[in-house]
Specification:
single chain; 412 residues; alpha/beta; VC0802-like; Rossmann fold; 2 domains; 17 strands
Length: 412
C-alpha cells in the first residue's frame, strides 16, 4: 500500500518526456495527482507559472524546472524532477500513467570526467543480485539525443565502459543485453556537460501499445489515438477512487472510456452516441479483449443535446467531437450548430458537472492565408468555468485542433 510506504526525504530523477513541451508538464502533474494516496506535483516553469495541482500533504511536493541551458538545448525534453517526501513507488506509478513520459532515470553517480564518475559510483555499489546491462547515451549530439538513443558499440561507449570497469566488476549478477533486471546508462552531455551513471527505473507508460486503434477488433471511422486519450484523462484529473463518474457525449468507439476503465476499473462511465451504425456490442467486446471492467459501463443511443440525464452529475466530461461530419449533417437538416457551443450550453443548462469537475474537449482551429488563427466563436462563461489549460495540436495544412480543459467553479 502506498500509504504505508516509508517516505524519502528527497530524490532526484531525470525524466525523458515526449510530445509538446507546453503540454507534458501539465499532463504529468495531472497524472501524478491520481494515486489513492495523492501527492501533489509542483512545476516551476515560466510557461505554466507555478501550477499546484490538488492539495499538498504536509511537507510533500515535487519540483521541475528548466535551466537556461536546457531551454536552449535540443534535448529540452529531458527534465530533472526533484521529489520531497514522495515514495519512489508512487513516483514510478505516476510516470506509468503518463503517456508523455518516455523514460525515468535515477542517478547513481556523476562527475566532470568518467574517472570521477567511477570513484563516486564505487561508494554506492548495489548489493542485490540482478542481471544487468550498460549503454551510453550521448546528449552532446543532436542526432542521437532526440530519442534518448545512441548506437551501441561506438568508441565513446567502449572507452566509457572501460573506465567504469572497477565499478562493473563489483556488480553481482550476469550481463543480459536483452531484458536486464538493472538497466544502467552512462549519460554524456547532460546537466552542464557532466557524465552521469544512472539506472533506468521506468519506461513510462509501457501498456500504451495495447490501446492503439490497430489492436482493436472493432473501430469507428476516426478512432482517437491512445496516447491522446490518456493525456486527456490525466488533464481531466481522472481519479482511481470509488464513485468517480465520467461522461463521453460523443463516444464513438469509446477510446476515452477504455482509458478511463484502465485507470479506474470502478469508474462509472456513460457513453452517449447518436450514430446508429456504431455497434455497442462490438465495443463491449473491445473492453473484454483488453480485460477491462464493463461494470458500471453504460451505452446510450441518443443525441446528448436531447437526452435527459435526470439529476446525474459527473466528475469528468470528456470528448473528441466529430466536428466536420456532424456539423455537415446538421447543416443539411437546416441546423446551424457548433459542437463546442452545443457542448458548453448543454453542460451548463443540464447542470452535468459536479462542482470542481472538469470538461475536456477538442475544438477545431484553422489559419487563413496570412497565417492568422481563426476559429468558430463560442463564449466560455467565466462565472461558471475556469479555463485551466489550452493546447494547440497541429494536424495538417491550415487545420489545428485546440485541447481545452475547463473546470466548473465550486459555486456558480
Amino acid at each position: 500500500m502506498l500509504a504505508t510506504t516509508t517516505l524519502q526525504q528527497s530524490s532526484r530523477y531525470l525524466v525523458g518526456f515526449k510530445g509538446d513541451r507546453k503540454s507534458y508538464h501539465a499532463t504529468f502533474t495531472s497524472s501524478a495527482s491520481a494515486p489513492p494516496t495523492s501527492y501533489s506535483f509542483l512545476f516551476n516553469h515560466d510557461e505554466l507559472h507555478s501550477a499546484l495541482i490538488s492539495s499538498l500533504p504536509p511537507n510533500s511536493k515535487i519540483a521541475l524546472s528548466f535551466t537556461p541551458a536546457q531551454k536552449a538545448s535540443p534535448n529540452a525534453h529531458l527534465q530533472w524532477v526533484t521529489t520531497k517526501n514522495v515514495p519512489e513507488t508512487a513516483f514510478i506509478e505516476a510516470c506509468s500513467r503518463c503517456a508523455t513520459v518516455r523514460t525515468v532515470h535515477k542517478t547513481i553517480a556523476s562527475g566532470e570526467t568518467m574517472a570521477e564518475v567511477t570513484l563516486n559510483a564505487l561508494k554506492t555499489i548495489p548489493t542485490e543480485r540482478k542481471t544487468w546491462s550498460l549503454r551510453l547515451r550521448d546528449f552532446n549530439s543532436i542526432k542521437f539525443g532526440r530519442r534518448l538513443r545512441s548506437p551501441a558499440g561506438t568508441q565513446l561507449e567502449r572507452d566509457a565502459i572501460f573506465e567504469l570497469k572497477p565499478f562493473l566488476e563489483q556488480l553481482i549478477g550476469d550481463v543480459d543485453l536483452t531484458r536486464p533486471e538493472r538497466a544502467l546508462y552512462i549519460l554524456s552531455g547532460v546537466d552542464g556537460g557532466k557524465y552521469l551513471l544512472s539506472e533506468q527505473i521506468s519506461n513510462g507508460f509501457e501498456s500504451l501499445a495495447q490501446f492503439q486503434p490497430v489492436e482493436r477488433g472493432y473501430l469507428t471511422s476516426t478512432p482517437l489515438e491512445a496516447a491522446t486519450a490518456f493525456v486527456m484523462l490525466n488533464l481531466g484529473l481522472m481519479r482511481a477512487k470509488s464513485n468517480f463518474s465520467v461522461l463521453d457525449p460523443y463516444a464513438g468507439s469509446a477510446s476515452l472510456l477504455q482509458a478511463a476503465k484502465y485507470i479506474n476499473p470502478n469508474a462509472k462511465c456513460l457513453a452517449v452516441e447518436r450514430d446508429w451504425k456504431v455497434n455497442f456490442s462490438s465495443i463491449r467486446q473491445n473492453f473484454d479483449d483488453l480485460n477491462l471492467s464493463t461494470e458500471d459501463l453504460k451505452f446510450v443511443r441518443a443525441d446528448f443535446r436531447d437526452h435527459g440525464f435526470g439529476n446525474n452529475q459527473f466528475d469528468l466530461i470528456i470528448c473528441d467531437p466529430p466536428y466536420g461530419l456532424r456539423e455537415l449533417l446538421d447543416a443539411r437538416r437546416g441546423e446551424n450548430s457548433s459542437c463546442s457551443a452545443d457542448l458548453l450550453f448543454a453542460v451548463q443548462q443540464k447542470n452535468l458537472l459536479k462542482g470542481g469537475g472538469r470538461l475536456v474537449f477538442f475544438h477545431p482551429v484553422t489559419t487563413n492565408e496570412e497565417g492568422v488563427v481563426t476559429d468558430e466563436h463560442f463564449d466560455i462563461d467565466e462565472r461558471y468555468f475556469d479555463l485551466i489549460h489550452s493546447f494547440d495540436q497541429y494536424l495538417s495544412g491550415r487545420l489545428t485542433r485546440r485541447l481545452l480543459v475547463l473546470q466548473k467553479k465550486l459555486t456558480t
